[in-house]
Amino acid sequence: MDEIRLAECFQAHRARLGAIACRMLGSSAEAEDVIQEVWLRISGHGVDDVRNLDGWLTTVTARICLDHLRARARRPEEPLDDAELRDDLDDLGDPQEAAVLADSVGIAMLVVLDTLAPAERLAFVLHDLFDVPFGEIAAIVDRTPDAAKMLASRARRRIRSAGPAMASDLARQRTVVDAFLAAARDGDMTALLDVLDPGVVVRADAAASPTGAPIQLHGARAVAQQALSFAGSVTHARMTVVNGAVGVAVAPHGRLAVVLTFALTGHRITELGIVAGPERLQRLRLIDLDTGSSGQDAGR
Questions:
Q1: How far apart, in whole angstroms, are the C-alpha atoms of residue 299 and residue 97?
Q2: Vertex 124, ends 120 and 128: CA angle to 5°?
Q3: How many beta carbons lie within 10 A of that of residue 52, not counting itself?
Q4: Which letter does DSSP use for residue 254 in this model?
Q5: What domains are defined for the chain?
Q6: How confident is the model over 233-266, as pLDDT tens digits?
Q7: Are 198 and 186 in contact (CB under 8 A)?
Q8: Residues 6 or more apart in contact with residue 288 via CB below 8 angstroms
Q9: What is the pLDDT of residues 110-124, one digit of tens each?
Q10: What is the pTM of this model?
């Protein structure tokens, strides 16, 4: 196959591969990197001997995504024992229910997906969202088809059990953070004090400090005064999920500059983090609360 024909074939599959990579990784920027890597593999080795190009491209994309997920894994892979395998195969549930669950991918589910082991996330995303057969998934994760079914079932159970609670908690966090932002924009000291815990702490990294040294502030009044001082930059703020919790991304002119992280107790803020260092910003997992976009674009 010549280069032009190869490029045309790849372009025809690109949108689906990008969607798979984005759901697998939770980041459109990382997904684009994966698709570029897939193209380099194709253009370097050719596909003349590939009979099922769609299946082959899906497999290559999934394996690259799996490598990315394993590199940043928060939870180790769990072994599958025979008893658990039988229980999971008996509990695969109604296919229609699984389809409804797959269609409900929202902010809370994206957060829960980040807590899954890499192979679980891959099995759930490929099977429940993109209808990839378990036989093909098994080859990607080096498991049997029954074990691949179990991985998807385990992921489905975790999403079903954690999703509603996560959605409720994110809604609570958003209400508190939104009240903080509104009070800062309006210059309302009283409203700020209402949303801040008396013992609240602010921790700003060196890049966020005018002196070039990390800053710590203690106490609601000192933190409220600091919030009023940066009220102007809050006009560029977007509500986002930062590493699983509601935060704020500040991106003037479309460039992510600062991320605010929050720790809450009930409906009060107990800790506020200000992250501006480029390397630290790059490591944050961001999901825009309004659009659901992920990665560094969430701040834009």
A1: 34
A2: 170
A3: 10
A4: G
A5: 3-165 (no CATH), 187-299 (3.10.450)
A6: 666 778 888 888 899 888 887 788 889 999 999 9
A7: no
A8: 238, 239, 240, 249, 294, 297, 298, 299
A9: 788 888 899 999 999
A10: 0.65
